[in-house]
Specification:
six-stranded antiparallel beta sheet; about 200 residues
């Protein structure tokens, strides 16, 4: 497993929502020449209640990473999400966001489910890390600090991300797939991992 690139939260450019309900910081997206990427990862600041934009043809994996709960009202359900809880829904759904206890923050994964599969899960401190073949992998730190054992030059503060870009076929052959890394965190820190796999 190669060393990741580190993305600092403070370097991510905030972009205001069209409805004025908050701002989004894009973390990463599928590289390419198309206008609409196959996947996109961002961190949203939820400052005010209001509707989400409807985006046809994509699936959304929404995870609360702020300190306050978020309620999402969809046509067929009302989901009350505590911090660290997620909801998956289609991008064309009409979704209204409620903030019963105040502003919060969310990790947004949006992807074309016809071309990509996705996995999102919370990690346990000390867990071994291994990049899955053909996967794009991102790990985000929530509250506190994290570091890779033996790699002091790549610590994460809250909001920072480790990013392992998808390997090319040649890189996969040259990389020791059995090599793993281990991370440690401060007691209050949580890490959330995203893996994206192209459908074949």
């Amino acid at each position: 497993m190669k060393l990741p690139e580190r993305l600092r939260f403070t370097d991510l450019l905030p972009i205001a929502w069209q409805n004025g309900g908050g701002v989004t910081r894009e973390v990463a997206r599928q590289k390419g020449d198309g206008e609409s990427p196959g996947w996109r990862v961002s961190v949203a600041e939820l400052d005010r209640e209001g509707p989400f934009s409807m985006i046809a043809g994509i699936r959304r994996h929404f995870t609360v990473i702020g300190k306050h709960p978020v309620t999402l009202v969809l046509p067929d359900q009302r989901a009350v999400l505590a911090p660290r809880e997620s909801l998956i829904f289609e991008g064309e759904a009409a979704v209204n966001c409620l903030l019963p206890e105040g502003p919060s923050r969310a990790l947004n994964l949006m992807y074309n489910s016809a071309n990509w599969q996705a996995s999102v899960r919370w990690l346990t401190s000390g867990e071994s890390l291994r990049q899955a073949p053909s996967a794009e992998t991102l790990i985000l730190a929530v509250d506190g600090q994290a570091w890779l054992v033996g790699e002091p030059s790549l610590p994460l503060d809250g909001g920072d991300i480790w990013h392992w870009p998808r390997l090319s076929a040649d890189d996969e052959l040259a990389t020791d797939s059995c090599h793993t890394m281990t991370f440690e965190t401060l007691p209050a820190t949580r890490l959330i991992r995203i893996d994206l796999f192209p459908r074949v």
